[in-house]
Amino acid sequence: MPYTTAEENYLKAIWKLESEGLHASTNAISERLKTRPASVTDMLKKLTEKKLLHYQSHRGVQLTSEGKKISLAIVRRHRLWESFLVEKLQFPWHEVHDIAEELEHISNPSLIERLDRYLGQPKTDPHGDPIPDKEGIIKEQRQIPLSTLPANQPARIAAVSDRNSDLLELLTHKKIQIGTELKVLKRFSFDGSAEIQLKGRTQKITVSAQLSDSIFVKTENHADN
Amino acid sequence: MPYTTAEENYLKAIWKLESEGLHASTNAISERLKTRPASVTDMLKKLTEKKLLHYQSHRGVQLTSEGKKISLAIVRRHRLWESFLVEKLQFPWHEVHDIAEELEHISNPSLIERLDRYLGQPKTDPHGDPIPDKEGIIKEQRQIPLSTLPANQPARIAAVSDRNSDLLELLTHKKIQIGTELKVLKRFSFDGSAEIQLKGRTQKITVSAQLSDSIFVKTENHADN
DNA sequence: TATTTTTTTTAGATTTGTCTAAATTTTAAA
DNA sequence: TTTAAAATTTAGACAAATCTAAAAAAAATA
What distance lies between CA A103 and its chain's CA centroid? Predict the structure, then answer.
């Protein structure tokens, strides 16, 4: 029942791939975890024996329902700790991801329950990502990357990738944060960049294709959440 | 510069032995860490190569000044987290040691600095043990075990061993805590037990020899601290 | 001091998680 | 559809941290 840090990291990486709608292939996992594909194959076999994955050689993997449950518990811990670091310890949001990567592996249940209560049972982390509840139920986000937002449709930033500290620094610098309202004025197919208008700013700003892929927005009209 | 969890555990165990005035022998370390003596020998060699220990075969070890510095940083982290768990998350004090054993290995310096500030730069942890400062300076305690306190000398509980959760549970149950004032009324050489009087209680209570060894007191007269 | 007991170390094995290099399988391209 | 490229797996090695069993050294006892 207690999983190693390595096992947990694999489970979380696979969960993230799945939740992004991607196929959890050996290479994709190896990129995310910065290990060699051969190492991934070994671990996939191990996790399959523990009934956490469905795996067939050369065919990638999916989480079993047990695997999903465990992954969601890890994600919950990660996001609660991120919330703690930002709200209580006043860390700038772009510094918290790496620390939370370490804290998330401490799995004492009453620690997490108390932390959750202490934070006031937050629904999302500082990046806007939803925090799974104790039972592993997570509010699915109806979010789209900024890169697919139609021009002139008002939207609000709901989440940003928390994987890249440089990204977070850039956003902080430009004072772009969760909740910022915006719309796309014009998109340039030459390089995928876009001109966007941030609500309450006079100057419009230009965002690159990479940046548009890393910012996720909710459109205002359909009332999810 | 980054040490493994195993290495840190050895350093801390050795530091504790030294700070209790004991000889850090292979067997003593192996008992504290619940590993076999052969494993200890291996690790002592490794830490010696890293210049954290002075070690001569069959002669036990001492920490080098670098080793001491690292140990104190670990102890600082441990005790700060214990404070957090009790003061902020409202854990009963006897549950925090094991969790802090995990948290202490996360060594991000700005995390610890912020945690310290958040807690109001506490001087002691919930068990009464002093917290080393950022530079590794620790306030030496002039404390004696209750078992050596002369009869009828008033004293105040300054610390208890945090290693044993059963002990802490017992103390909590009997409402004995840091700061509790007491004196020994009578000691029985038959079994080392003692009758003690707690200030503000009508009933005197009996403590076993083991318990007297695990409670550390300061006498009121000499103004240390 | 000689002998026994205890402590410590050595030697060799095991587990976990990783790696490289080579072989195999799948996918894409010609 | 054959071939080339890419992805994946196998085979074998390695480092870290542990173990058991046996040997050696130190300490205690007779």
Answer: 16
